[in-house]
Amino acid sequence: MGLDEAVLLSPDVEPIRYDVSLTPDMSKFTYEGSTEVSVTVVNRTSTISMHAKELAFWSCSYTPAGGSPQQAKGIELDVRATTVAFVFAEPLLPGKGTVAVAFTGQLNNEMAGFYRSSYTDINGISRVMGSTQFESLDARRAFPCWDEPSRKAVFKLTLTVPASLTAFSNMPEASCTTLPGGELKALSFMDSPRMSSYLLAWCVGEFDYVSALAASGVVVRVYTPPGKAASGEFSLDCAVRTLDLYDGFFGVPYPLPKLDMVAIPEFAMGAMENWGLVTYREVDLLIDPVKASSAQRQRVCSVVTHELAHQWFGNLVTMAWWDDLWLNEGFASWTENMAADALFPEWKMWEQYTVDSAAAALRLDAMRSSHPIQVPIRHAEEVEEVFDAISYCKGSYVVKMVHAVLGRENFQKGLMAYMDKHKYGNTITADLWAAWEASSGMPIAEMMQSWTTQMGYPVLTVSDFKEAGGKATVSVKQEWFLADGSEVSAADAKLWCVPILTSTKGGISDDVSMMREDTMAVTVDLAGGDWFKFNADQQVPMRVSYPDDVMARMSAAIKSKAMGASDRAGLLLDSYALVKSGRGNAGSLMKLLTSYADEDDATVWEAIEGVLTGLDTVLVADEGIRADLNKVAKKIIAPLLAKVGWQAAKDDGHLTVLLRATLIRLLGTFMYDDEGVVAEARS
Questions:
Q1: pTM above 0.85?
Q2: Which residue among 189, 492, 532, 581 is buried most deeply as judged by most CB within 10 Å?
Q3: Hey, which residues are catalytic here?
């Protein structure tokens, strides 16, 4: 849909620069505010319309450049549309001017807009802090503004707060003045870059912090509740290293002089990427430096790398309208894994991606109740409905697919060109496709159209396997995959532009062919081996169904680990999904499971766990097959448990810790009657 059909504020007046001043009363939970906005009157008008919600207005005036102020004769609130219209007796003529508004607001307790959080300090005393959460539509709850992503402007903020409290915003402090009496101080912050209203942020309260310098000289701080500074050390290290990584990856240096990350006691999201002041739920930023688990460290690292990706993709370059939110979040979700993998390669983040984000995307998008990645949004309020796993997980999955098709060099080259061309501006999805087409010469827009504008994904059915001269030839058919196994009518049939990526004994083939029709003949160079697997490294959101003779060859590659971990996990997850949909049978799946008898990869075991527990639930009414399942499960669990053990060891790696947790979870279902397991559990 885009901007042309969206419900927007009038284009008659455009903001250039905001000067926002707020004086919060931290005991009464109210604040007084004033805003002076430098604007351009584009068309002759008698009305200035802005977004506003839960604000009370006292006055408004407009002063044309070099002219005299004119007071608004009327203030008209539209509660449903969350707008305010300032009506003037004399028309405002095209040109530059300043809008001045006086208003009051409340520090609500709804975790949106300018709101308050309660917490207990290290002395057991209840405290209150103030912070903001504006995405998507809540900047208007804090001050009147043009609360649309394409109405970018510069923001200057002044906060008058109790002298004993700390306050900070997107930009560094420009001045601090103690007011007469010494109880209050006025903090003014430097002008922000040109940005969208939802990225403005500030915090007021009591904090400790830890800090470090990035290689570029950017000051990075992690703000914590008093007495918890040490719990910010890990996220600080992640942030500094991530900033350095992204400076090179995006080709545009981080443009602000500082980056603050702050833990908020009461926070609705995991985190929010406000430019230069990223806010987090405490558990997603702060961890005990001694007691933190491997899972906690990975979670904190992933959230930090995700939010810092937004400093470029979303903040520096912003979607023109909310229907492109998926690209904002999907790209950051892809980048979080790329960065975490670079910071901690021993975590094998891309292998984990196969059984986490990718699996979630495939599970949800196989339902008839799913929706396309790119959803038309007419009213901004509708955006809350698409902040879901399709935007994040499938969005990141299709970015992963593009990266696999283009290769890292062309992918990064196009991304750098996109960032440089559109920095401080707004874009639509097609702008990124165009940049990648220019860097690669490949039809990216054609391919991506089929993946972003229609819901679901395909299942490729492989048949007619023939081998000759070191090559395999097969027929491939694509259909819309539905988890419930329901038939797809001819009218509902879908086609995708599917990149065919292949794994063999020789690794992942460099050749990429595009499947545009419903059937296609494919020839694979077996690279001296006897097996192949489509969807190499699970790079494409789809399922693949193979005939028994091809599966038998892949089973041998699973046993020998000639097949990579992502492929071993993905093949099992595909087979399980096919069984549940009625396209496969449980007997064949259990036969495949026996191929994992010597499996010791933590990621593959996460896939095995999902399949074993899923089958145990599905087969609850079939005691015979369920007994066979238990035998298979014990056969593959027991040897590895003996090797990994129940107790943590000093030399445990990150993935060993996760693997042990997976195995112990499985014991209660499949080895509850084993005497050794029962004895160890009792001890």
A1: yes
A2: 532
A3: 307
